[in-house]
Write a structure and sequence with these properties.
mainly alpha, 4 helices
Length: 112
């Protein structure tokens, strides 16, 4: 039990103060920005290469376009992590608000 408590108190340093840059497990803004730029450049270029090479028979450039699209999607994964974290936070907030509304309705919405 005490080892578990020490593990929970691990991030606290300097006599109970939290560090200035507390790590919440999501990628930093720099990683998201670079991934967004790479993704927004690679995906349209890959799509244009695939579309241009689809008219020809047996072209190697179609494979290059698909690889660019896949690379662009992989580069967008840090942004997806932030979007999922935001979505789950909004879901929890909505669930708490609905629960409070239901409890208030049960308390104050009695029979007349």
């Amino acid at each position: 039990m005490s080892a578990r408590l020490l593990n929970l108190m691990g991030p606290i340093r300097d006599f109970g103060r939290f560090p200035d840059n507390y790590d919440i497990g999501l990628p930093g803004g720099n990683e998201v920005g670079i991934g967004l730029v790479i993704g927004l450049i690679a995906i349209p270029i890959g799509f244009l290469i695939c579309k241009a090479s689809s008219d020809k028979d047996g072209s190697v450039f179609g494979c290059l376009g698909v690889l660019l699209i896949i690379g662009g999607i992989i580069a967008l994964l840090p942004l997806l992590a932030w979007i999922c974290a935001l979505g789950s936070a909004l879901y929890v907030i909505g669930t708490v608000v609905v629960a409070i509304i239901v409890i208030l309705a049960l308390i104050f919405g009695g029979k007349k």
